[in-house]
């Protein structure tokens, strides 16, 4: 397994470009299954999860053309296999996103159950209940979800008990081809949900209210070819900004958007960062100062994102003062805490709250990545720590961060990959 070796202690300094959003790329690639003809998707990040989604579509017989700039043209008219097998789903839970489009367009889908993962049980009951309300017959058998829609799906009034991002996306995609109007109440408002809705509308769908808690989808009979570029990755953006804040640095991030990460920018300013923004860039400058500890609580958008929690725990670990970080979206999403403590952090866990008492310095240690965002927090800690930190199991990082060591090198970090 590849490892990252990081020689810490230097402030991040310089400019990089932000990639397209993983969490938009995955549903948008799945949505190509809805169209009659070729859909081309641009600004795709070069990531393992995106490759897995492409592999999954290829496994179904879908024709894909990839150009060297990671634009992908997808033609689902060649589909000949309506199964998402365990071997692929187990490596990427977001594979569940093919369920809604397949059953809506082809009347049938067989998708392996994603199962548990490092950050909690993560059920998909709301995806299934919503599809049932639209008239799909669902059976769960031998680890697979089997969904059938002998007739066209029907519009329905669906209330989601919990705000679920991929659940909202799955149901929105299914509803796009359903007969009649679907109303999703308590829908997720994440920018990636809006991006998917905009992509569906570019294909000829009629989705309204995206970005609010009530999404109204007027089903259409067919969706058409189009080209769509995915939006910038707000979590990648936030991760580099937080790394710069933790290392007392000064960075300029290009090809990104400030309006999709307001909650994070507010907390970075609270930590003492000077943050300036333009239409497609964000600059953060710590003026050589140590960050101040911040308190935060994760919740669905537009509140502070759970996908940025671990990185802020790492920043608080070296901040001036004590910060409390409460996780309300996922159970068991503090796996990074034990590793940070091994690097000298002073963190106490009380239920779903981490009390982080900032220390003057962290020290290098061999640490192990446990999930995607936890591994980003270990990289941040490694950039701050004195000495050489080795982060093991970085395949987690490669799922969500394009060329992380190249980008950090551009920002002046001493970091290299050690192939296994
Ligand atoms: C998505 C993101 C992930 C992010 C998460 C929360 C993608 C590909 N992944 O994951 O990066 O951390 O949103 O912002 O976009 N739940 C249920 N029943 C369901 C579905 C969800 O109880 O049927 C619960 C989950 O256990 C969790 C909460 O709802 O506690 C939110 O999960 P959800 O928004 O569905 O996360 P994902 O869509 O899997």
Automatic annotation (TrEMBL):
**Broad class of the protein's primary localization:** cytoplasm
Please give the family membership noted in the entry.
Answer: Belongs to the EPSP synthase family. MurA subfamily.
From which lineage does this chain's organism come? Bacteria, Pseudomonadati, Pseudomonadota, Gammaproteobacteria, Oceanospirillales
Q: Which CDD domains match?
A: UdpNAET
Q: GO terms for CC?
A: cytoplasm
Q: Which domain of life does the protein's organism represent?
A: Bacteria
**In which organism is this protein found?**
Halovibrio salipaludis
- Catalyses which reaction? phosphoenolpyruvate + UDP-N-acetyl-alpha-D-glucosamine = UDP-N-acetyl-3-O-(1-carboxyvinyl)-alpha-D-glucosamine + phosphate
List, in alphabetical order, the GO biological process terms annotated in this UniProt record: cell division; cell wall organization; peptidoglycan biosynthetic process; regulation of cell shape; UDP-N-acetylgalactosamine biosynthetic process
Function in brief: Cell wall formation. Adds enolpyruvyl to UDP-N-acetylglucosamine.
Residues involved in phosphoenolpyruvate binding: 22-23
Cite the EC number: 2.5.1.7
Instruction: Name a GO molecular-function annotation.
Output: UDP-N-acetylglucosamine 1-carboxyvinyltransferase activity
Q: Which UniProt keywords apply?
A: Cell cycle, Cell division, Cell shape, Cell wall biogenesis/degradation, Cytoplasm, Peptidoglycan synthesis, Pyruvate, Transferase
Q: Which residues bind UDP-N-acetyl-alpha-D-glucosamine?
A: 93, 307, 329
Give a single Pfam family match.
EPSP_synthase
Identify the InterPro entries for this entry: Enolpyruvate_Tfrase_dom (IPR001986), Enolpyruvate_Tfrase_sf (IPR036968), MurA_subfamily (IPR050068), RNA3'P_cycl/enolpyr_Trfase_a/b (IPR013792), UDP_GlcNAc_COvinyl_MurA (IPR005750)
Catalytic residues, per the record, are 117 (proton donor)
Q: Give the pathway.
A: Cell wall biogenesis; peptidoglycan biosynthesis
2-(S-cysteinyl)pyruvic acid O-phosphothioketal-modified residues are 117
Subcellular location(s): the record lists:
Cytoplasm
Protein name listed in UniProt = UDP-N-acetylglucosamine 1-carboxyvinyltransferase
Q: Where does the record place the Enolpyruvate transferase domain? A: 6-408
